[in-house]
Amino acid sequence: MRIQAFWTVALAALIAWAPEMAQASERGPVTNLPLPRFVSLKANEGNARRGPDQSHRIDWVYQRRDLPLRVTAEYEHWRKVEDAEGMGGWMHYALLSGLRTALVQTDMAQLHQRPDVASPPAALLERGVIARIRTCQPDWCRLEVDSARGWIEKRHLWGVDPEDVFE
């Protein structure tokens, strides 16, 4: 009976600690920041390599400043990133910025004056436009594109997760 009670308590403790253990494993070993997370390309050009070192072959050359990228792994000064199409590689951290940007995924997506589909449109955004994210609510993000500012539904963007809420 004592052994059964021991295993019951041990199992209950394991179940209680499982979320904390899972959360700890979702942090980068170098920065302790969440993985995956979104960043943007700081430079006008950045090489994505096959491995985390300059001796590795270049697989991709990104040439769009502020392009949103998803960091999926870390190793020393290197971050493994992927783009909206799932392509990528290892990039030196100095090429990346914490500035949040998004890539418009829908052609002629409406940028609204307020976070409401009934709100008047402030602009129409073509597919492939890169915008700076100012804030995000559960279903909407406030963007800045050149001189236009407004709200867009998250479903039109790559560079934010559905659960992202921030100011």
TrEMBL record:
Keywords (A to Z) from UniProt: Signal
InterPro entries referenced in this protein's UniProt entry, alphabetically: DUF1058
Cleavable signal peptide: 1-24
Domain of life where this protein originates: Bacteria
Stored Pfam families: SH3_4
Identification of the protein by name: SH3-like domain-containing protein
Species per Swiss-Prot/TrEMBL record: Roseinatronobacter thiooxidans
